Records
---
Amino acid sequence: MLADLHVHGMAHGEFNHSKEAIRPFIEYAESRGLEVLGFAEHDWFLEEIKFELIRSLQVETPVSLRVGLEVDHRPGLDCAGLTKEYPFDYLIGSVHEIDGFLFDHPDYIEVYEQWDSDLLYAAYFERLEDLIESDCYDIVGHFDLIKVFGCRPKKSILPAVTDLLQLIKQKHLVVEVNTSGRYKPAGEKYPSDDILLLCRSLDIPITLGSDAHMPRHVGRDLADQVEALTRMGFREIVTFKGRKPEFHSL
Ligand SMILES: [Zn+2]
Ligand SMILES: [Zn+2]
């Protein structure tokens, strides 16, 4: 079963929610055999999201369309205020920033030199813990994004990761398998296989996302991931409708 819940139909503002712009994303989803396609725009485009327009395209396609949101989690964020007026199917919580350091943005790459890698990972995990504790989200986006530009920890992160995953389990959150990392200097998906194996052993549910910012990246590598995840022992993936989880056999 193929689903892609992490698609940016507006990219970083290059497109908008018009039928002409959205249709190519849906066409790619169809050509890749997706059953569920979820648009999850960045929250800074909140007011430009056109729920009705996307829902009106449902009659044109067998792919089940969903509308989510990828929220840039910041400590103290008022997520209830952010979303109560909007009928989202799901919210992805993502950490992209450590005190003004936009660590996944190429313009900030030199800032890595100012950090000890272990301290950077610890700071990232602290923000991730705040995200998990916030009770705002359904999905934890790209769990180990801090590796995006190839910064690797010196000591094992698995003890800290295990603590975070236990918290994710307690909070009934879903971990996203995000294939975009393969096309970044990190060279592999988020999260890495050792973290996914921990998810499996803790029985944490997973979902799938390409993080596409253009139509031809919709569903990228997800069929391969389904095979790999099956080999790891996963049996199902989760999608969301109206903030309620739906479980599908892989
Ligand atoms: Zn993100
Ligand atoms: Zn994204």
---
Amino acid sequence: MMDLSRQNEPLKEEFFFAFSKVLQHQKFIMGPEVLAFEDEIARYCQTPFALGVSSGTDALLMALMALGIGEGDEVLTTSFSFVATAGVIARVGATPLFVDIDPETFNISPAQIEKKISSKCKAIIVVHLFGQSAEMDSILDIARGHQLRVIEDAAQSIGAEYKGIRVGAIGDIGCFSFFPGKNLGALGDAGVVVTKERELYEKMKSIRVHGAKKKYYHDILGGNFRLDTLQASFLQVKLRHLDEYTLRRQENAKLYRQGLSQLQVDSKIQLPIVYEKASRHVYNQFTIKCLGGVKERDQFKDYLNAIGIGCEVYYPCPLHKQQCFEKFYGDDDQLCPCSELASEQVLSLPIYEGLKKEEQNYIIEKIKRFFYD
Ligand SMILES: Cc1ncc(COP(=O)(O)O)c(C=O)c1O
């Protein structure tokens, strides 16, 4: 699915140099590299403020804490994402309201959001899944109409754009993950929050260090959500290469589209649909739909795995069906049929920037063989 050494090996000398600099100054916590990286990533995300944090999950948690969301509040979010997106809502004591997805893009369906809004709703967490922006114009319209804050979970979408604007810079707070397998991956856990609002920035800055503006005086409750200096220094190295990595992911996507087009014509699979307003898809995943049903999808996955081709089902269980959210299960109106169907159809193929052309041609060849032989 992904061989991280293909990205990290060529950067080894740069990592060693970054490491030796940190070792020299010994400022392992909130060292100068954190501030420098925040400046660079703010520029990359086209936002005035960025804060390096411990992970994408903590970025989301801090965003909710900064917006004062807690007990008695409801937060709308997609029913089709990684568990962290909704887990943070429950962790602050609020109720996640799961919204169905657009079956074409796998992102939250604006048409379904409005149906779920109640007077208790305080915010929407939008996920830009697989590297493609959600339909932000409609989402922002709805949010404005109901005084809802918008948090963007851009964990999978650094550098993706909606009508030319970088994701994370569109709503109130943008949250990114630098988990090693992400498009921009640290050498461990890391993340960032970005915002246009100084007030939110100041609040999150304090939340990041146990709610303290002045050392040992804690105005509000926070946590230890700091980004390690070392990770910041490694991320500085990688950020310089991010656009080149993205381009390679986009080229890999193009090759899959060419190689697998006949399978789409023959209604075996559906290739990822890119819609016009999502002006830059960064392909954290290349997720196809297998149209022959869940049994065929699972056989297809087993077949690829058996011949050494990595592939993964993101995600086999929609959020509204996860046991950890059992207490939020609703009646019929909580059902999200499009995300349930997606969980039975999706399969993500290797798309990472280090994938070689001959490997990709081999994958395409083997996929055709599965469906036609
Ligand atoms: C959509 C989404 N949200 C949140 C996260 C959580 O990020 P992290 O693993 O850095 O905590 C991830 C990471 O997998 C993700 O894909």
